[in-house]
Amino acid sequence: MAKSQETFNKKEKEKKRLKKRQDKQQKKEERQSNSPGGGLDNMIAYLDEDGNITDTPPDPTIKKKKIDAKSIEIGVPKREDVVETVRTGRIEFFNDQKGYGFIKELETQEKFFVHVNGLIDEVREGDKVSFELERGMKGMNAVNVKKV
């Protein structure tokens, strides 16, 4: 004759699981009976025209503004043409082997990175140059660099 597959330990685990389920159901029922209730209507909050939170809906007749639909621009605003000025500076450092250097602008004393691809003329340290600026990955880069 075969032994029963339900051991004492299995029976105890099943009892604990059922007890937990019953406790959980009781707690849920207690929360529902003790809650103020009202559902969604009690949870809704409104914003008035000043941005303050209230529990009363706004009056649609007060402070209504008319907006002309044609004045609303949809999409990206048009860019204004940026006038690029040619700047002047002096080559502070330039490494021919690595192909990069730095230009110090004469007016603002700012330093800008320059790469060999941005050069029009060959340059050496100390040369006076004119250049334009372009946004690079790490800041502003000098491009179209010419000797003056």
Description:
The protein has helices spanning 8-34, 40-43, and strands at residues 46-47, 53-54, 87-95, 100-105, 111-115, 128-135, 140-147. The protein is elongated, with a radius of gyration of 38 Å. It is 21% helix and 27% strand. The mean pLDDT is 86. It is α+β, with helices and mostly antiparallel strands. The strands form two sheets. The chain has a five-stranded mixed barrel. Strands 1-2 form a two-stranded antiparallel ribbon. The chain has a domain at 87-147: OB fold (Dihydrolipoamide Acetyltransferase, E2P), CATH 2.40.50. It is built from two helices and seven strands.
Count of DSSP E strands? 7
Across the major sheet, the strand order is 3-4-5-7-6
Whole-number mean pLDDT: 86
What structural class should be given to the helix and strand makeup? alpha+beta
N-to-C series of helices and strands: HHEEEEEEE
Alpha carbon gap, first and last residue: 108 Å
Low-confidence stretches: none
Instruction: Please report which band the strand proportion falls in: under 5%, 5-15%, 15-25%, 25-35%, 35-45% or over 45%.
Output: 25-35%
| CATH architecture descriptor of the domain at 87-147 | Beta Barrel
CATH superfamily membership of the domain at 87-147, which one? Answer: Nucleic acid-binding proteins
Q: What is the radius of gyration computed over CA atoms, rounded to a whole number of angstroms? A: 38 Å
Biggest β-sheet: count, sense, barrel? 5 strands, mixed, barrel
Please report the number of helical segments.
2
What is the share of helical residues?
10-25%
Biased composition (Basic residues): 13-22
Biased composition (Basic and acidic residues): 23-32
GO molecular function: DNA binding
Keywords: DNA-binding
